[in-house]
Amino acid sequence: MAKERLDKILSAQGVASRSEVKTMIRRGLVTVDGEVVRAPEDKFDPELVSIAVEGRQIGFKRHLYIMMNKPEGVICATSDGRIRTVVDLLPEHLQRRGLFPAGRLDRDTTGFVLITDDGELAHRMLAPKSHVYKLYEVGCDRTLCDDDVKSFAEGIVHGDEHFQPAKMKLTGDNTALVEICEGKFHQIKKMFTSVGAVVTSLRRIRIGEVSLDAALAPGECRELSSEEVQLLLSRKSGF
Ligand code: URA
């Protein structure tokens, strides 16, 4: 990895704000490979050195992967002048890291949103050709039947949009699990509209082989383990 300024490395790792980090460095609280460094502008390759703040080792992470249980009313964006975003809900120390939501859930959709700074993984996870399935719990305004399951399996046409075949599993009169690997705008809602039903609730519960952590209340988040990061790109169907 390229060398970066020490203050930039530490603030990007969520240690403190850039100006706070500068002060800490100037006060001699930061060591690099055991030596005190007092110049915030000194450059290091964070993957090749060992950095400690007040004796505490900073475990360098090139990228962060956060699972959030998105609540209703919040948008999948980094910032917005009016409406709260998923990034606004992150703990303060994570707000400085240039994180963004990988893909979009509608404002009224709840559930699993991945928030990361890894553009390459986000791209792979979202590209339909990667066949990473996203699983949704859907509620709608009419009783669903096997004909709906068949229509989804055949692929839905909505106006001039074509949606790839999708798996639907009925879970109650008006509820189903639906799995898609595309992420077109309002896709699930449009698919239901095409079979004459209106979506009344929508919640994403799984991406790849990673399920939304049941311990996360709406608005809460946690970091993914490295195993979970690998499983995000799994092509295995949830059914
Ligand atoms: N499909 C939709 O219609 N909305 C979402 O938020 C996600 C999938």
- As a whole number of angstroms, the C-alpha radius of gyration is 22 Å
Look at the structure and give the mean pLDDT: 95
Q: Looking at the structure, what is the overall shape?
A: elongated
Number of helices: 6
Could you state the order of secondary-structure elements as H and E?
A: EHHEEEEEEEEHEHEEEEHEEEH
Estimate what percentage of residues fall within beta strands: 25-35%
Structural class: alpha+beta
The hetero compounds bound to this protein are: uracil
Tell me the span between the first and last alpha carbons.
40 Å
Roughly how much helix do the residues carry, as a percent range?
Answer: 10-25%
Question: What does it look like?
Answer:
- 20% of the residues lie in helices and 28% in strands.
- Strands 7, 8, 9, 10, 13, 14, 15, 16 and 17 form a nine-stranded mixed sheet that branches.
- β5 and β6 form a beta hairpin.
- α1 packs across α2.
- The model has no long low-confidence stretch (mean pLDDT 95).
- It binds uracil.
